[in-house]
Design a protein that fits this description.
Elements lengths: L7 E4 L2 E4 L2 E4 L2 E2 L2 E2 L5 E6 L7 E6 L4 E7 L2 E6 L4 E6 L4 E5 L4 E5 L6 E6 L8 E2 L2 H9 L1
Parallel strand pairs: 4-5
Antiparallel strand pairs: 1-11, 2-3, 6-13, 7-12, 7-14, 8-11, 8-13, 9-10, 9-12
Bound molecules: thymidine-5'-diphosphate.
Length: 136
């Protein structure tokens, strides 16, 4: 059983045959949150650090649909590191995690499924503010 309150690598259903592979994310499967938004990161320079923020309510599923990159997560107490390098794996990121994404390989792309529409008020962009929020 997946604990959706902690970051977890989950399998993304894949249909592969001699013509290639097709991955599927749909309502409730494999991510049991409403998918209200999909966005994608691409053309990221290898030395770029993306993210550097936390969300108060948002659940996300991050998939490396091409290439690889590293996701570092911090809940104010514990740090974890995930390398995403396969379209058939996805990283669930619950609310309350400071995240940084880095070491993007050339040509890599991150596809992100999000449980709500874009809302700047859901972001915490200052680490000290996050640390205080996480302690509360
Ligand atoms: P941001 O969330 O800071 O990107 P990252 O965490 O990957 O570094 O967003 C970058 C810019 O894109 C920022 O100006 C806000 C805008 N944006 C939207 O307009 N809608 C969205 O859904 C997202 C994720 C970002």
């Amino acid at each position: 059983m997946t604990d959706w309150d902690v970051p977890t690598l989950i399998n993304v259903p894949e249909f592969r045959d001699g013509l290639g592979a097709l991955g599927v994310v749909e309502k409730d499967a494999p991510f049991p949150f409403p998918i209200k938004r999909v966005y994608f990161l691409y053309d990221v320079p290898s030395n770029a650090v993306r993210g550097s923020h936390a969300h108060k309510d948002l659940h996300q599923l991050i998939v490396a649909v091409s290439g690889s990159f590293q996701v570092d997560l911090d809940d104010g107490k514990t740090n974890s590191r995930f390398i995403l390098n396969s379209p058939n794996k996805g990283l669930t990121v619950p609310p309350g995690y400071w995240r940084t994404l880095r070491n993007f390989s050339a040509g890599s792309a991150a596809l992100v499924f999000a449980s709500s529409e874009y809302n700047p008020d859901d972001y915490i962009r200052d680490y000290d503010e996050f640390a205080e929020w996480a302690r509360a």
